[in-house]
Amino acid sequence: MFRFFENLIDPYVPYAEDDQPPRKLWPFLWSFSGQFRRLFGFATLMSIIVAGIEVWLIYYMGRVIDLMETDPANFWTDHGTELILVALFILILRPAFQALDVLILNNAILPNFGMLMRWRNHRHVLRQSVGWFENDFAGRIANRMMQAPASAGEVIFQIFDAISFSLAYFIGAAILLSTSDPKLLMPLLGWFVLYGLLVKWTVRRVGPASEAASNARSKLTGRLVDAYTNIHSVKMFAHHEREMDYAKEAIEEARETFQKEMRIFTKMDVTLVALNGVLIVGVVGWAMLLWVQGSASVGVVAAATALTLRLNAMTGWIMWALTSFFRELGVVSEGMETIAQPITLRDAPEAKPLALTDGEIKIEDLSHHYGRRSGGLDHVNLTIRRGEKVGLVGRSGAGKSTLVKLFLRFYDVESGRIRIDGQDISTVTQDSLRLAIGMVQQDSALLHRSVRDNLLYGRPDASEEDMIAAARRAQAHDFILDLEDPQGRKGYDAHVGERGVKLSGGQRQRVTLARVILKDAPILLLDEATSALDSEVEAAIQDTLYGMMEGKTVVAIAHRLSTIAQMDRILVLDQGRIVEDGSHDALLAQGGLYADFWARQSGGFLKLEERA
């Protein structure tokens, strides 16, 4: 039975991705509801039925009291069949309706709505550009990714479990009292008006307060994750107290925003108790007055009393449900600041996969300043022929890394273009472009998974033999066999920790190299590929690196000039422009910047801060 309702919705069903999600709250939530709309209708219907049954039960208990005022000797004869049918209804049909109500809500809607929303939001966020991620905390993004769908699920729950039920219950209560005596509606309606004003006052304040509290929690999460992710730096610089102060500031902000939110609830609770006192005295007192006047039976008084006490008990729950409803809407709204942002780096309409033939790269009048007036690249023109190995040299901020990021289309160029085999990379699919490029970065971070998973990231369909062969070529196989994680997993099954923290820098770099060897892409981008290796290991895999480059188009950034001295060409970048271009020997003979860099090397490294 549970499986039937749980499988009514498939949260992973294919859907049309929207690069520009709705930026308003209700259209945003509605965009996830396609599969759920029929279930929403059933859930509303069941809430009305269940509420109607509850009101009818109170009415019927009043009727039973009136029936008991007749002759006991004939009671069972006159009413036995009716009472048996009502008992069967209470024992069988009432639980069946209730079960159907909660199965639709708890097992069909709630587990799937939040998961569908989380799944689609995760797909959307993963499609954002690298620059988008660089402008936010990973912790805050993850926090909003987790909080917003959970809060959206709570919103759905409150709509059908509390709001629709309570509206149906109130209408049923009004009908019941009016059929007993229309005058009983007067105190109920008066109370309802005051209750509505209290609800309005509360929800107008809860939404902004909860959004502020949620934003403060996201900020706190971002700061904590930032500290945990960079724990080595925290320990290395002995900044425990500094980090505590940094976190305390966010913790105090979260505390203060939560306190303001809770003040609203306290005022609401106190006022609600006073209002409910008015409800009880008004309705029950009026019913008793009608009984004294002979206008109402004892059953009517009993029903009115039971109904009023039930409303008294429900009002706190309803108010809490309403405030929870608007509070969760505030959390969703805050989450939308991240997860509903449009995709700005998109494949062009009708984009086709990159058709790679030679691997020739041509850069035409390329400028990119990250939206600023300076920095980055400035009117760069360059042709890298098929199979050519090109080294990039320059001081920090000269534009080397910018050029590599633009090759991978992590950013759209601000002006100019990059062509690969004559195709503008902005007109081909991003995935096909990046599949054609192997990249080894200076920051050799790994996924918090097994060594095998990290290696196969380069080519998921590679065989075990190919994977091990790539590890051997990168001088990584032997140390991998010696690995063991705290859970007892060994060798290629050992997990490497967050960002590969359980491995040394050199080990991480060798796993990264092995991954790129396994990928075997026709274009190679190397950003300080051997920077984390000691001299002995670097010498051991130098031949491997040059073997990797064989037959490929290569662009290599290096501060250690000896690693690129054998390149076909060396480009010297300065202030975003190519100022020198030639072989190692030719550039030395020119006596320019490259010759100066070479002369100023210490241990083979370029002193970036010194100027000619």
Summarize the helices and strands and which ones pair or pack.
Elements: H1 2-6, H2 25-30, H3 37-67, H4 72-126, H5 130-134, H6 138-180, H7 185-229, H8 231-236, H9 240-292, H10 298-339, E1 361-368, E2 377-384, E3 389-394, H11 400-407, E4 415-420, E5 423-424, H12 430-435, E6 437-440, H13 451-456, H14 464-473, H15 477-481, H16 505-519, E7 523-527, H17 535-549, E8 553-557, E9 569-574, E10 577-582, H18 584-590, H19 593-599
Parallel strand pairs: 3-8, 3-9, 6-7, 7-8
Antiparallel strand pairs: 1-2, 1-4, 4-5, 9-10
Helix pairs in contact: 3-4, 3-6, 3-10, 4-6, 6-7, 6-10, 7-9, 7-10, 9-10, 14-16, 18-19
Quote the distance from N terminus to C terminus: 78 Å
Alpha carbon gyration radius: 35 Å
- What percent of residues adopt helix (DSSP H or I)? 55-70%
| Strand arrangement in the largest pleated sheet | 6-7-8-3-9-10
Structural features:
alpha/beta; 612 residues; 60% helix; elongated; 4-stranded antiparallel sheet; disordered C terminus; 19 helices; 9% strand; 6-stranded mixed sheet
Q: Overview of this structure, please?
A:
The protein has 612 residues and is an alpha/beta fold. 60% of the residues lie in helices and 9% in strands. The protein is built from 19 helices and ten strands. A six-stranded mixed sheet has the order 6-7-8-3-9-10, sandwiched between helices. It has a four-stranded antiparallel sheet with strand order 2-1-4-5, with helices on one face. Strand 7 (523-527), helix 17 (535-549) and strand 8 form a beta-alpha-beta unit. Helix 3 (37-67) packs parallel to helix 6 (138-180), helix 7 packs antiparallel against helix 9 (240-292) and helix 9 (240-292) runs antiparallel to helix 10. It is elongated and about 120 Å long.
